[in-house]
User: Fold these one by one.
Assistant:
Number 1:
Amino acid sequence: MNPLRTLVAREFAAYFATPLALVFLLVFLVLAAALPFYMGGFYENEQADLQVFFAFHPWLYLLLLPALGMRLWSEERRSGSIELLMTLPVATGWLVLSKFLAAWLFAGLALLLTFPMLLTVNFLGSPDNGAILAGYLGSLLLAGAFLAVSACLSAVSKSPVVAFISALVVCFVCVVAGHGMVLDAFRGWAPQAWLDLLASMSFLTRFQAISRGVLDGRDLLFFVSFITCWLLANAVLLDLKKAD
């Protein structure tokens, strides 16, 4: 029997065992709704779309999702419960995938609860809802990428704080990788192929394309591949710790 459904349900329910879930949802929803209106000029733009709304998501995720993912494995290691968890008759890959999917579902729930923004823009104008749905898909994939990094780095340290800071730094690098200022630091001594590779790793560039409604298969494949690689690294790290 595939244990994934049971494991995911258990991990997802654990988020609501403490007030942490409600605090996270409240903070995310308040910021996700307030920033477009107070800092993004949602009304002033006079555009029937959610471009301003999605523009803040990479930065919201950068602050909030490492905090969500920092405890996935570090807390298990700190409390010693990871030894019990690793003795279960379940492959490490299933454990890694279940924790990630539960966190991703929780992030997806937070994103789903922003539906009043969709209702608002449809009330005010006639937006391209296909492009908006593409933006939501891109946001969900972006959240998955942040969580995959956070989960993997959480397996390295017993300290959630160290896991948070590590994930924050790595995710920040991934967000700004394609920024002109970053590329300028390499331009002049690095080959153009390296610059192109660095630019192609940028979360921001790829997410902006999807959020405008441009569903390029290369962007989708990038996020799926990125998530897969970090989950595989997570499983390898856990197996190495188990072998120690």
Note: The chain has one domain: 4-243.
Number 2:
Amino acid sequence: MNIDNKYNKLQSILTEMEEAVIAYSGGVDSAFLLKVAVDVLGDKAQAVLAVSPTYPSREFEKAKEVAAAIGAKLTIIETNEMEDDKFRSNPVNRCYFCKSELFTEITKLAKTNRYKNLVDGSNFDDLGDHRPGMKALKEQGVRSPLQEAGLNKAEIRELSNRLGLPTWDKDALACLSSRFPYGETIDLQKLRMVDEIENYMFDLGFRNIRARHQKTTLKIEVSPACLKRFFEDETRQKVVAKAKSLGYKYVTVDLEGYRQGSMNEVLK
């Protein structure tokens, strides 16, 4: 199917649902799904934004602004994956425990408001990566309409641009727990460190920033187009000084630049 056929299929899927609760993060995929859901279902579409220490702090206000611009009803909840020892120990299926917590809380809200359908923004490209959270979605009956319609990330960006969404060229969004190599325990202090250095680099104008935390070492990923600027003396010294002020002993840069799922490369 071409992109227009896929878009029509997505609209048909949502129309058949009649109502839905959308797990919303403010990222490219969930913002697009929310926009189409509101266009199709009106006030029968309900967005839920889950916040916790693993959610990048710089995204919160932006996510609320986008939802308001779409005209969506938005409920904000807190999730408590950091209270789960299995999640904090950071096994290779860490995402399963996070998604289980997320959709357990969203299900409570859906039942209270008598919604039957829970949906998330997983896209067709996600089927090709290590995604243990998919198991949790299946267990809790969560549907992924973008996958069902066959829409990949590039197509979602194109359609988002057509619809006038400011998220169409937004950086890829992932929870902060993805910054840690499997097996390294996640705690609140480490999450604060990666959140703060990423916010600092974002303010310097870098794109697709990932602060990969490896004990006392920080490994930075940015868009390949930003690498040259990073190595300008003034910028490099600023970032190193900031990282060391947060507690890092060593600061390194991944010369390949940002790429989705780089922490999963050890699994292949």
Note: The beta strands are 20-24, 45-51, 73-78, 118-119, 210-214, 217-221, 250-253.
Number 3:
Amino acid sequence: MQTKKTRLGVTIIAILCLVSPITNAQQLDPILLELIQKGINKSHAVSIRNSDAALAQTDQKIAKAVYLPKVTLNGSFTRLNDDITFGEDTENLLLSTQKLLIKEAVGIPFNTPLPESVPLTAVPNLQDKNILKSSVDLNWVLFSGLTVHNAVKASEHKEESMNYLSLAEQDKVALKIIEVYDQLALVYASKTALTTTKNYLDEQTNFVTKAIKHGLATPIDLKKIELAQQQMAGKFLAFEQNKTLLIEVLHQLTNEDKSTLALLHPKLNQFSNDTSSTIEKRNEIKALEEVDQALLYKSKMIKSNFIPKLALQGHYEFLEDDLSLLDPIWYVGVGVKWNIFDGNQTRLSSKKVVIESDKYKSQISEATEMINLSIVKAELNYEASIQNAKIVEKEIELADETYHLVQEQYTNNLTTINNVLDALKDVEQANFKLQNSLYEQRRAVTELHHAKGILKY
């Protein structure tokens, strides 16, 4: 029995070393880091936030494009019901004036009729009924009244807000994958404990079988051990089912091959929290602050409606034949637009933005309070998990000693096999508690790092 006791003690120490090497901080193994990156790449929520950021970036380019000159080519054909001409009196006046000019040019007296052989130029139409036009227009905003500047600034802050929200979504993905990965490690650690119990059940089977031959035990004792072994087989089946389920969840989160995930064998490394004084602003808070800044520039953009705008406009006609007598071939002009009163639309729109900004300020305050509360909660959970691990280690020590004592009593016919199996079950449960306490400790440290904004992956 002393040999068995020594082997059991060594095995328990090996389990403690296997599942709980202590690290100074949250150190994620490379395989987990790779899974997190694959999960981030697969995440639809992250993709949506990145698309929102890209849209905000495009809005900036659209706003800046206001200052680029707009050149438009135009072409048209129009047929009127008739030519547009001068009135009869005006035409007669123009012809008479033409005759006077000819007389003066050739030296004919004013009162002498102009010879009929002298040709006269017909009075042109104001506009021919067939009109074919081809032209180019230029419109160029020279000053937008700071509207473009404020619009670009608003879009820049919106883009930053979307980037921070994308990082916040990445944190959520990382937290979920870390949780499932740790659950898988807990399942494997549980299998180690089950294997240890199974080995000692096998030893008990051999011992009781020999004891029956010498009349020191009954077949009922052996059947009780066999029942315990069947129960152990059910626990191994539960292990395989839990492993399969967690691998399926990891596959859905990361899109990694199930066959590759099945080869993983994560371990529960114990974390210690050495960053109690380090707190960084969370991405969610940064996103809300950027939205508030975007609203500030949006308000300025609305108010700039009352600042004068300056633009240049130009026009050039490629075809001159069908132009009316009043149409210019080209022109260039500079115009000013100045809104003096818009029916209170600007004032009301600006007031609406201010109200919206106040709403986001309240959200920032609320989120900050909730984060501070989550930090306190995570710190308490971490302290509790450390204390719980110490308690469980004592429980393992007590369960181990109790098992050896009961085993010796059974060897000397001072107790029943039921007490031996109960003692062995206590050892198994104590090991489960230790593994679960390590899992809870890792969860507490991960949540604490996330609450403090220092989750690294």
Note: The longest strand covers residues 130-143.
